[in-house]
Structure formats: structure tokens, C-alpha cells
């Protein structure tokens, strides 16, 4: 058992990303029951909905699970109080300064991990007192770092910069990829895209099937003046590209994005006008699977990679 497994009390150091419109109680509980760490994605939930998901998750798993909280959430104080009231013991924070809430959470015996996209921010996490850091590379879906550092470059840089338990994220969807990040210094992985496309994900079936037909190059990092987001090709993305090419301001892009665009795409399945967020690794997969099937493949792939690499030694 390594530091990540020990920290969260899980069998395998595999964490399911807390993705908007994908990571409800069904997905989180399925991953936790399969030996990983499931995360409920609070970024797309009103406070009362989050409370409901926490309670439903606890009703179907007796294993550890957590909640992902974007620190830019408008009702952040209410969300944090719900975390405490409902007895959640693991929180992954993102999109904000870890110093803001880490101390408050740890005073209440909550384990805190924070998502970063650079070694500079990883060092800030250590200063803030977080328990683990998630280093997420450019390949990831959803919101991303402006640095555009790939996962294979980011992990060794963060490993050198901090002594914190390190979780790799971005472009990881196979056991072989898990093995590669571990070789570079990661002690666990956070997987988003692969779990977003499982049966238990709350994303629209239309969205899932569309993403399972993607090829290399069908996603692109855009909206850098707002919050960098990896988007799938569709009519909405075309409009964003045209706007950015002519130098649209952040305010213009915000107006184009409007409200509820990600819900329209991911949750409701509007393939033309929705904001379709998914990682580059989606292009590797062609069929829907359950969480149990994915976890089994991840473990088998890791062991296969380990055996293969050991045979290369002179």
C-alpha cells in the first residue's frame, strides 16, 4: 500500500475525477465499491442537490468517497458547511487558492487534495498544508492550465518541487498510462474521461456515444481568456474558434458561453450548441463499459506493463 492508498483508505490508488454533470452518486459509489476513490462533482450541483448525492452515495457504499469542490463556486460557504454537516472526510479542491479553505477543512479533520497544473502551484499547495496534490496535464478534459504542460513533463517537475503525495491526472485512461506516471514519480492517478464514459456516469448517453467516436485531434483547448477548457468539435466550438481568432475579449467570450452551456452538452446531449468537454484520451476508446469493467482493465493493463518493462532490463 502506498501513500495515496493509505491517505484515503482505499485498495487501489485510482481516483475518479469529480467532473461536472458526470460525477454523481452512482459513479462515485461504483468507483469506491471497486476499490478506488469515487468523487462527487459539486461544480454542477446546487447545495441541496449535493447533500442529496452525498446521502445517496453513503447509502450504497461503506467505503471512502469524497467531494470535488471548485473554489470559484458562488455558494462556496454553504457547500463547505454541507461537507461538514454530512460528515464527508475527503475533499478535492480546484480552480482557486488552496490557502483559502485548506486550514478550515483540516481543522475539521477533513483530508484535502488540491488540483494544480504547474510545479509553482504545487509548492503553494505544500505551503497551504494540503495532504496531497493532483498534477493535471494539458491532455485533460474540462478546465485546464494555461501553461499547456503535458502530463509526462508535469509529473517529474512536480515530484522534484514538492514532497507531498502526488496524484497524476490528464490523459490517463489505461493501466499502461498509470504505470508510466508511477515511473515518473506519481503515487496515484486521477482518471476523468474514462469514467465519464461509463454506464454509471450521469452524462447523457448521447454525449457518451459521441465521445466514443472521437479521433485524434477532435478536441482542442480553447477559452483561455476565461478558464481554459478542452472542447470537442461542434457548432458551439466553431463559434468560439472564430471569436478567438478575431481577438474577442473575455467579456465577449463570456457572453457567447452564456449560462448552462456545459449542462446542455454533457447532461442534456445537445451535440451542436452544448459545451462538450472531454479529454484527449477519449480517442482510445470505442465501447461503453461499466466501472467494474474499466477498473479490471486498468489493473490488468498496469500488471501487463510492469511485466513487459521488466523484460526489457539487460
From TrEMBL:
<dbReference type="Pfam" id="PF03060">
    <property type="entry name" value="NMO"/>
</dbReference>
<keyword id="KW-0560">Oxidoreductase</keyword>
<dbReference type="InterPro" id="IPR013785">
    <property type="entry name" value="Aldolase_TIM"/>
</dbReference>
<keyword id="KW-0285">Flavoprotein</keyword>
<protein>
    <submittedName>
        <fullName>Nitronate monooxygenase</fullName>
        <ecNumber>1.13.12.-</ecNumber>
    </submittedName>
</protein>
<dbReference type="InterPro" id="IPR004136">
    <property type="entry name" value="NMO"/>
</dbReference>
<dbReference type="GO" id="GO:0004497">
    <property type="term" value="F:monooxygenase activity"/>
</dbReference>
<keyword id="KW-0503">Monooxygenase</keyword>
<keyword id="KW-0288">FMN</keyword>
